[in-house]
């Protein structure tokens, strides 16, 4: 008993009294590394937390605090540092009264490393120096932190320049301030059909590349655009206020990992029906029969379907009336799409519009990855059309259809109720577009070009059948 007290007194002699820093969390550095590695692979915060062995709530909190950016390096630790597994071995051998040199020999480490570990990272609650692996790992992780003052926090002139060009007031040509609409910061991205904060709204890249122009001889007035993004998104940097993200172009409050955006395609779309598999003859527009389709949306979920033939620019408009009960029946999960442009309604409308065309004019249909095309397999059986889907966020892959939708907005402006238009109204608008001369067609109309294709195909068929 006396020797134990003397050892404890010797330990205190070499180490000043220290207060306990608290209780260790239920996670370690490797948990965070596994979490951010899973997020980088495209998993959601909850899924990444489960992979890392944590609760989904912890994953969501880490993602928000980091602004969607990793808060710890995902690179493995150097072998010069003790791992958690080695600390567990030290705790077990130390509890078995093994000496420092014996522990060092079994672990292949220097005795000084083991001695320093037992003294430096021991548990100190209650005045006792007992070594536990979890406590030791927690102490090591805390000491490994090297908090660096952000450049924007240390340089007030640079911080003022960034804030002024990011969130500065708009000014009239005579220099008067323009405040714009009143907005309230709620910590979330701006909603649809809501006013946004008016500001100078320079992008971080514009600010970063403008600094050498405005301050050519001042090397302290330099910062990368990534450092500005981190100052905005990562909590605890203390440089820029988090609400300034409302001044960015996107206005998003969290950064989204690139791998997560790649997995946003619809589950019913497989690689075999992507636009990359579409035949080459559809790209050069030499062969008619390849169509592009989309929905033109209006007020209160009203919609009109559009089909455009790539070679002739011939347009077909599809009437998508609302179903009974749209205005007064409550929405039910997995129920029918009362707005009139659900998967079944769109499938039937396309089939009814295109099934009477000759076979050589029904080669393929390209659509975006909207949920209204979830029943494309049945549509392919009903019409014989080969269905292809564009890549996510790539409307230029349906350029003909997008251009036609822009022309249609003259008749169906945004924010208007499209359900009030009848079948005859849509037929009249389609006839107007198809009777306009087009520069791309040599100033011929789409109707004339399509009719010429049909006649030439009939003549070639007749000639082929003559013995």
Please outline what is shown here.
With 467 residues, the protein is an alpha/beta fold.
Description:
This protein is 40% helix and 7% strand. The chain is elongated. The protein has helices at residues 2-14, 29-40, 45-51, 56-65, 84-95, 100-107, 111-120, 133-144, 151-154, 156-167, 204-214, 225-233, 258-262, 343-354, 376-383, 399-408, 423-434, 446-465, and strands spanning 170-171, 177-178, 290-297, 303-309, 315-319, 364-367, 386-389. The chain has three domains: 2-144, no CATH class; 151-258, no CATH class; 271-325 and 336-461, Nucleotidyltransferase, domain 5 (2-Layer Sandwich), CATH 3.30.420.10. Strand 3 (290-297) and strand 4 form a beta hairpin. The strands form two sheets. It has a five-stranded mixed β-sheet with strand order 5-4-3-6-7, sandwiched between helices. A two-stranded antiparallel ribbon has the order 1-2. With 467 residues, it is α/β, with parallel strands linked by helices.
Structural features:
467 residues, alpha/beta, Nucleotidyltransferase, domain 5, 7 strands, 7% strand, elongated
CATH class of the largest domain: Alpha Beta
Going by CATH, what is the homologous superfamily of the largest domain?
Ribonuclease H-like superfamily/Ribonuclease H
Following the backbone from N to C, one meets helices and strands in this order, namely HHHHHHHHHHEEHHHEEEHEHEHHH
- The proportion of residues in beta strands is 5-15%
Assign the structural class, choosing from mainly alpha, mainly beta, alpha/beta, alpha+beta, or little secondary structure: alpha/beta
CATH topology term of the largest domain: Nucleotidyltransferase, domain 5
* Alpha carbon gyration radius: 33 Å
Order of strands across the widest beta sheet?
A: 5-4-3-6-7
Figure out the total of helices.
Answer: 18
The unreliable regions are none
Mean pLDDT: 84
């Amino acid at each position: 008993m006396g020797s134990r007290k003397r050892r404890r007194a010797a330990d205190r002699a070499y180490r000043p009294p220290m207060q306990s820093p608290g209780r260790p969390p239920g996670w370690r550095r490797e948990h965070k590394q596994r979490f951010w590695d899973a997020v980088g692979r495209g998993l959601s915060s909850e899924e990444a937390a489960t992979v890392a062995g944590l609760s989904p709530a912890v994953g969501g909190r880490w993602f928000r605090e980091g602004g969607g950016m990793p808060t710890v390096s995902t690179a493995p630790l150097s072998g010069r540092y003790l791992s958690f597994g080695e600390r567990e071995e030290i705790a077990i051998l130390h509890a078995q009264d093994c000496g420092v040199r014996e522990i060092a020999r079994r672990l292949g480490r220097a005795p000084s490393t083991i001695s320093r570990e037992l003294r430096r990272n021991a548990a100190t609650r209650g005045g006792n120096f007992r070594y536990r692996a979890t406590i030791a790992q927690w102490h090591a992780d805390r000491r490994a932190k090297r908090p660096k003052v952000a450049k924007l926090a240390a340089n007030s002139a640079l911080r003022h320049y960034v804030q002024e060009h990011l969130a500065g007031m708009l000014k009239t040509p005579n220099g008067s301030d323009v405040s714009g609409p009143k907005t309230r910061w709620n910590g979330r991205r701006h909603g649809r059909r809501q006013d946004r904060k008016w500001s100078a709204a320079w992008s971080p890249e514009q600010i970063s590349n403008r600094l050498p122009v405005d301050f050519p001889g001042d090397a302290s007035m330099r910062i990368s655009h990534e450092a500005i993004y981190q100052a905005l998104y990562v909590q605890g940097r203390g440089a820029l206020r988090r609400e300034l993200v409302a001044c960015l172009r996107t206005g998003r409050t969290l950064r989204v990992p690139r791998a997560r955006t790649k997995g946003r395609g619809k589950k019913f779309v497989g690689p075999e029906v992507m636009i990359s598999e579409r035949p080459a003859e559809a790209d050069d527009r030499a062969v008619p029969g390849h169509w592009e389709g989309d929905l033109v949306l209006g007020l209160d979920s009203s919609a009109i379907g559009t089909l455009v033939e790539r070679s002739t620019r011939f347009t077909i408009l599809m009437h998508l009336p609302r179903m009974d009960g749209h205005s007064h029946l409550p929405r039910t999960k997995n129920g029918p799409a009362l707005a009139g442009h659900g998967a079944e309604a769109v499938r039937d409308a396309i089939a009814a519009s295109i099934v009477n065309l000759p076979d050589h004019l029904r080669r393929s249909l390209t659509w975006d990855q909207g949920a209204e095309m979830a029943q494309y397999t049945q549509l392919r059986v009903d019409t014989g059309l080969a269905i292809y889907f564009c890549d996510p966020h790539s409307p230029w892959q349906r350029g003909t259809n997008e251009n036609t939708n822009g022309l249609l907005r003259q008749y169906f402006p945004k924010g208007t109720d499209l359900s009030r238009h009848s079948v005859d109204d849509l037929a009249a608008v389609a006839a107007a577009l198809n009777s306009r001369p087009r520069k791309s067609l040599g100033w011929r109309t789409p109707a004339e070009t399509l009719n010429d294709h049909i006649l030439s195909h009939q003549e070639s068929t007749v000639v082929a059948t003559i013995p």
